[in-house]
TrEMBL record:
InterPro entries: CysJ-like_FAD-binding (IPR003097), FAD-bd_FR_type (IPR017927), Flavdoxin-like (IPR001094), Flavodoxin/NO_synth (IPR008254), Flavoprot_Pyr_Nucl_cyt_Rdtase (IPR001709), Flavoprotein-like_sf (IPR029039), FNR_nucleotide-bd (IPR039261), NADPH_Cyt_P450_Rdtase_alpha (IPR023173). SUPFAM superfamilies: Ferredoxin reductase-like, C-terminal NADP-linked domain (SSF52343), Flavoproteins (SSF52218), Riboflavin synthase domain-like (SSF63380). It comes from Columbina picui (Picui ground-dove). One of its GO terms (cellular component) is cytosol. This is Methionine synthase reductase. It is found in: Cytoplasm. PROSITE patterns: FAD_FR, FLAVODOXIN_LIKE. GO terms for molecular function: [methionine synthase] reductase (NADPH) activity; flavin adenine dinucleotide binding; FMN binding.
Length: 699
């Protein structure tokens, strides 16, 4: 269909890690089949669109990053629309629909989208479609898929309304008929988006034989005991259903194998947003006993020779590689074991149907296959449905092909969540489970996201230890499960643990020939400043810190910094400091027993510690968790927060700790102020907004 017969809308995306862009591309791809023409741009490309003069509907897909910030690509746009001199009718002409992406594990859920949505409303813009807020903690697709399904009906109605406003309602039938699969009458406009969507055919499967084929015709050798579904096996009703599967994403990358001569790019070239530095690891300490459930390590980096300013509470990122053995395994399955050291040239495929096709920014134009799989692609990423759909075409076994179709289909949404998302399945797991699937390298480049640098809280003070940066982490463990028969360590924490093993366990093989000290390993890092999680600017203001486990990390930096300030400024007034720390066992994972030193020299006023797995030595059971200990000091918490206008910091696991702490604070505020819980929640919200209740949490 020619563009002039379709109805145009503007499609903007703001992405941090590629999620919003991928969803926008899905909308762009589906638009044509529904009789629309989407003009798609990154929201940062403000020279290519103009909302001040935009007459057609606008669709915005926007993610959230950090502690509720819009993504980097949206910063200029947000700054522009937040101009306080703009009149309240600035966007009165604008119709828009917004899809926000976020993670409810974090406090400011979808705040990037909410910020833009709220400001557009303040400037007079109108919704033509309700805002969608997708939650990555349960699966973005649970909101994204139905939101996209309903978008087409909303767009049709927006265009019909637009024509009526222009005094052309008499031509509504003509407008409707020009929208390819549009309803023929107004009654059909009320059909649910799901029913309409079932009419769509996969562009890559012109006949629906594959979509309607029952797995009962395929799994002829399945044993009678296969009554439970699994990653590789389905049961009724899905095994007997016709499937609605996504359209096949167009391929757009071309890989040309060359020779083995040349040099791979420097790691710093992979980081566009910050300056990366290669620094030595000078010290490694295991903070937990061997029989602790989790292994915590402290690493010290030498930053004396670089310009790397940081404040206690800041974070920084470590550039890490994928696991060597997993890369080798992937090369073997791809049939590229002999070509791992070959350089490849990556180009955009001529004639591709993908709009705005470009080489992903994280892929060098020329590097070795092994470099791409080791440093560029997140091979541990949970495969998205579009990737599963593409893998269908690389699978020769009919039964395996059907199961992959089920997992990416609308009907298989619960199976996808259970066996892929919740099981943390990655590409290697899929390739083992579906051995006839043989994807190409270009398909991996097209669908696997960028290997992200991992962020860690600084656990030191530059004032206390000039030229040194410390951080603490648990070695992440992923145990086996039915969908993943092998256990794995975290990509970065596992690599760091292996890297510093010689420092932890020096022996003759790891000592250098000269001085008998372990050889120095280096890692590449870059700064990631935190704009809010810092000590109070006024040292006389009291503050409380809650940090169980490795959540104590930034508070060690806080206390070191405070100790040094006390030593250098004996005439200053310093507010009281509280620390609530918790771990499983006092003798196994009490990470920083030297906290007592801070207590003894007056840097720390109050230290409250609990141990969740140790048996109580008194008749009255001791509190096991930090949120319980916080409740014991209700009057002190209320005094510090309300009377003395102090600060409250929380660092650590959100779901199992931080939410419990905020609930405790709400109850304390309610009890001490004699107000109901709703009013107490409003008070806590105000404390958050004024940056006096601060969180650095992870899921």
């Amino acid at each position: 269909m020619c563009c002039d017969l379709k109805r145009r809308f503007l499609l903007l995306y703001a992405t941090q890690k590629g999620q919003a862009k991928a969803i926008a591309e899905e909308i762009w791809q589906q638009a044509g089949a529904h009789g629309f023409e989407a003009e798609m741009h990154c929201i940062s490309e403000m020279d290519k669109y103009n909302l001040e003069t935009e007459k057609d509907p606008v669709v915005i897909v926007i993610s959230t990053t950090g502690t509720g910030d819009p993504p980097d690509t949206a910063r200029k746009f947000v700054k522009k629309i937040q101009d306080t001199t703009l009149p309240p009718d600035h966007f009165a002409h604008l119709q828009y629909g917004l899809l926000g992406l976020g993670d409810s594990e974090y406090t400011f859920f979808c705040n990037g989208g909410k910020t833009v949505d709220r400001r557009l409303q303040e400037l007079g813009a109108q919704h033509f479609y309700d805002t969608g807020l997708a939650d990555d903690s349960v699966g973005l697709e649970l909101v994204v898929d139905p939101w996209i399904d309903g978008l087409w009906l909303a767009l049709r109605e927006a265009f019909l309304l637009q024509k009526e406003k222009e005094g052309m309602s008499s031509n509504a039938d003509t407008v409707s008929s020009s929208l390819s699969p549009a309803p023929h009458n107004m009654d059909e406009l009320n059909l649910s988006s799901e029913v309409r969507n079932l009419k769509l055919e996969d562009e890559g499967v012109r006949s629906s034989d594959v979509l309607s084929q029952k797995s009962g015709d395929i799994h002829l050798v399945a044993s009678a005991r296969d009554t439970e579904p699994s990653l590789v096996h389905s049961v009724p009703p899905i095994s007997q259903s016709a499937l609605n599967i996504p359209a096949l994403p167009p391929d757009y990358i071309e890989v040309e194998f060359q020779d083995t001569h040349g040099e791979n790019p420097h790691l710093s070239s992979l980081i566009s947003e910050r300056t990366a530095f290669e620094v030595p690891v000078t010290r490694a300490v295991q903070l937990t006993r061997e029989d602790a459930i989790k292994t915590a390590l402290l690493l010290e980096l030498d930053i004396a020779d670089i310009v790397f300013d940081y404040q206690p509470g800041d974070a920084f990122c470590v550039i890490c590689p994928n696991n060597v053995s997993e890369v080798e395994e992937l090369l073997q399955i791809l049939g590229l074991s002999e070509k791992g050291d070959y350089f490849v040239s990556v180009k955009v495929k001529q004639g591709t149907k993908k709009k705005g096709a470009a080489i992903p920014q994280h892929i060098p134009e020329r590097s070795t296959v092994k470099f791409i799989l080791t440093w560029c692609l997140e091979i541990r990423a949970i495969p998205k449905k579009a990737f599963l759909r593409a893998l269908v075409e690389c699978t020769s076994d009919v039964g395996e092909k059907r199961r992959l179709q089920e997992l990416c289909s609308r009907q298989g949404a619960s199976d996808y969540t259970r066996f892929i998302r919740e099981s943390n399945v990655c590409l290697l797991d899929l390739l083992h489970a579906f051995p006839s699937c043989k994807p190409s390298l270009n398909l991996l480049i097209e669908h696997l996201p960028k290997l992200q640098a991992r962020s860690y809280s600084v656990s030191s003070s530059n004032l206390y230890q000039p030229g040194r940066l410390c951080f603490v982490f648990n070695i992440v463990e992923f145990p086996t499960c039915p969908a993943r028969p092998v256990s794995r360590k975290g990509v970065c924490t596992g690599w760091l643990a292996d890297l510093v093993a010689p420092l932890l366990h020096p022996n003759k093989n790891t000592l250098d020939a000269k001085g008998g000290s372990p050889s120095t390993e280096k890692i590449s890092i870059f700064a990631r400043p935190n704009n809010t999680f810092h000590l109070p600017a006024d040292p006389s203001v009291p503050f409380m810190m809650v940090g169980p486990g490795t959540g104590i990390s930034p508070f060690i930096g806080f206390l070191q910094h405070r100790q040094k300030l006390r030593e250098e400024h004996t005439d200053w007034e310093f507010g009281e400091t509280w620390l609530f720390f918790g771990c499983r066992h006092q003798d196994r994972d009490y990470l920083f027993k030297q906290l007592r030193c801070f207590l003894e020299n007056g840097t720390l006023t109050h230290l409250k510690v609990c141990f969740s797995r140790d048996a109580s030595t008194t008749e009255v059971s001791s509190p096991k968790y930090v949120q319980e200990v916080v409740r014991l000091y209700a009057k002190e918490v209320a005094r510090v927060l309300l009377q003395e206008r102090g600060y409250f910091y929380v660092c650590g696991d959100k779901k199992h700790m931080a939410d419990g702490v905020s609930d405790a604070v709400v109850d304390i505020l309610s009890m001490e102020m004699k107000v109901d819980k709703l009013e107490a929640m409003k008070i806590l919200a105000t404390l958050r907004e004024t940056k006096r209740y601060l969180q650095d949490v992870w899921s």
